[in-house]
Specification:
Length: 526
Amino acid sequence: MYDVIIRKGFIIDGTGAPPLKKDVGVADGVIVKVGDLSGEGAEEVVDADGLFVAPGFIDIHNHSDSSIFTVPTADNYVTQGVTTIVVGNCGYSPAPITDNNREFLEYSEREFIKEVGGIPWRSFSEYLDRLELLEKSLNVVVLVGHGTLRSAVLGVGEVKPSEKHLDEMKGLLAEAMDAGAFGMSSGLIYVPGMFSDTRELIELAKVVSRYGGIYATHIRNEGVGLLDAVIEAIQVGLASGVSLELSHVKAAGPPAWGSVAKVLNLIEEYVGRGYDFSADAYPYTASSTGLDALLPAWVREGGAEKMIERLRNPDSLNELRGFLARYGIPEEGHADWDKIRISYSESHPEVLGKSIDEVSRMWDIDPVSTIARLLVEDKGLTGVVIHTMSENDVIKAVSHPLVAIGSDGSVMKLGEGVPHPRNYGTFPRVIAKYVRESKVLNLPEAIRKMTSLPARKLGLHDRGLLRPGFKADIVVFNYYTIRDRATYENPHVYSTGIEYLVVNGRLVIREGKHTGAKPGKLLRRT
Ligand SMILES: [Zn+2]
């Protein structure tokens, strides 16, 4: 007797092999049989005739570290067919907390604290215990952030660690890995990760490597300095032996366009020599981050409070104005204020969706004054969407066999701000736009990049394939109707085409609707 039988769907097993029409039988959260199940009964039978059946999608680059606690039904992800998210990316995780970084983390978690009253953990293992206890609709894999580890020992200033500091960071990292983290991430354009040097990263990556974890890096520069930044990541990989993941591979700003192919060639080269290097990407030509990330390091050093002081000071603001006029945004080597749109602003909801240029005209001030005003009044937490990539580079990244699909988004409530549409549409968009419409990828290959590729990278040995003995994370979708509907102007729209979603053997989506079930698990590295 089965719990669930999915009948007569086209099975795409996640290996990249072409589809075959078969039934899938699930019992006790596990795929028991893939084959002919006619004559067998189940508590729930899904008629998948005409539909495609694949392993649930794994989002290898996600930022729901704390928002999963406030939106545990993860509606904007399960409606994309996602059954597992990997959080703790870009150098940031909300643990471990020490006296050195309490203020920094409480600041970053302001929204979360507003909803739940306070951060109910300190150590990394306490954070994982909370994630484990939480009833949630999808599985969660956690990385520990290098920036968080650094801040836990050194605070958020521009300082170099002594050997003793480095040992303390290694100790906290080992604790996180012991507790079940799958690796470490870095965010080398953010405070405080930007103040680290290559040696610090190598020393920490050695610890990750010892545990067999991954090192996922938001590299130091994704624009004019892209290749140098990739080479630094490769150095860390070579010197530590760690499994390297280049996060959200892209070429930001017209001077860097065309470079993605070079990055991918480099990765290929080292994979050819036996290294475990890979990358992930999302299928959009715009990126999204904090407005503060566009400013030079000297403005941001020491954290938000110090940055706000500098932005309030007419002299340092003038210095910034001169800097941006001469050099542009540090990463991009120029500044295109009409390509940068406000996605989040607590103090000025009227500017959401508008460009820095448009807001400057509204307020009748220059763009740098606009940026300063927003950051000061939002207390540093203004969000932006930046139209910065070329479609050719996006196609190169998304279609490359070593690049998994990662959304770089997070679970969220319908209707808050004007976020990047990737939060709602990443996975269906790859299938709709790059498989069905432009055919730069075939369907089994696209599915492989969403399933077995990230599962193997992470060492999730019982997920990512539709095969007996594997955990029953299964998506059933309509190839002809699957699509992203979220746009830059109107992002809070769920994707369509995901007809059924099974997480650990239980239906989270039935006939396109969330069932309310919360069978998701915290997965720990073993
Ligand atoms: Zn990032």
